[in-house]
Each structure stands twice: as C-alpha cells, then as structure tokens.
Design goal:
Layout lengths: L7 H36 L4 E8 L2 E8 L8 E8 L10 E7 L11 E4 L4 E6 L5 E11 L2 E11 L2
Antiparallel strand pairs: 1-2, 2-3, 3-6, 4-5, 4-7, 5-6, 7-8
C-alpha cells in the first residue's frame, strides 16, 4: 500500500527528478541517432569504386569514391601490375580528366608514387555529369592508356 507523502516539496522534487531523467535519456538517444545519420551521410562518398583494365599485359586499376561530388577534393589511386601480378614502381603516371558533353579544358594531375605499384593524385571535378578519367602510364619507352567513367553529383 502506497503511503501519502506529507511533504509536497519532497514529492515534487522526486517527480521532477524522474521527469528530467526521462527527458535526458530521450535527448541522449536522439543525439545518438542524429550522430549515426550524420556519419552515414558523410561517409557515403568515401566508399571506393575500383575498376581494372588490362592494356598490353599491364593491369591498370583506378580507385575513386563511388559518388564523387563537384568542387570537392577527390583522391585518385592508381594500382599497376605486370602480367605476372607484380607491382610496377618505375612508371610515370598522370590522369587526363575530360567531360565529353562539355570539354572543361586541360586537367592532368600527376599521380605520385605512394607504395609498391601504387600512385596517388588529388583533384576536383568542376561540373556535375559524366566524366572520363584516362590513366596515362609511361614506362620503358611505352605509353599505356586506360579510360574509366565516373558520374559526378552536385
């Protein structure tokens, strides 16, 4: 059997504390949900899209974000392997970015060596739409070209 409280201030204090405790828990759970949504949204362009082409025995792989956005720095990673699957470290690599529907001028960032058979470049797309990225590899008096397509979002 519940006892009636003889002190209204004490009852009010206990009741208020319970309400605030519930509100605090609710706020924390909503903050956690918002943080998770923001993390998912921020990481949506970070999923790499990997494509490989073989040109005259040279395997050229391009890694880029799956959903690149215009006017945002984009990392391009090029992986090179010979016909035996060995990494190629002695090449000069650059990218030639072009928008077929509306030529944007010359955008040719140089890809710097970044580990065994790995080359890295950073640039930005200046317009939304379909872009072609031609990876140009110069090695031992030979030039290899592989063209990849990316759809760029606003």
């Amino acid at each position: 059997m519940a006892r009636a409280c003889k002190c209204p201030q004490r009852c009010l204090s206990i009741t208020t504390r319970g309400v605030f405790s519930g509100i605090t828990a609710l706020i924390r759970s909503h903050c956690l949900i918002v943080i998770l949504i923001l993390l998912a949204a921020c990481s949506s362009g970070a999923i790499p899209l990997r494509e490989t082409q073989v040109v005259d025995g040279l395997s050229i792989t391009l890694d880029t974000p799956d959903r690149p956005r215009m006017n945002t720095a984009i990392d391009f990673v090029v992986l090179l392997q010979d016909a035996k699957g060995q990494p190629i470290d002695d090449a000069s690599v650059y990218l030639d970015l072009d928008m077929p529907a509306m030529p944007m001028g010359v955008t040719q960032p140089v890809a710097l060596p970044d580990g065994p058979g790995r080359y890295w470049a950073r640039t930005a797309y200046t317009m939304e739409g379909l872009w072609e990225i031609t990876v140009v590899v110069e090695r031992a008096e030979e030039t290899y070209r592989a063209t990849f397509r990316r759809d760029v979002l606003k």
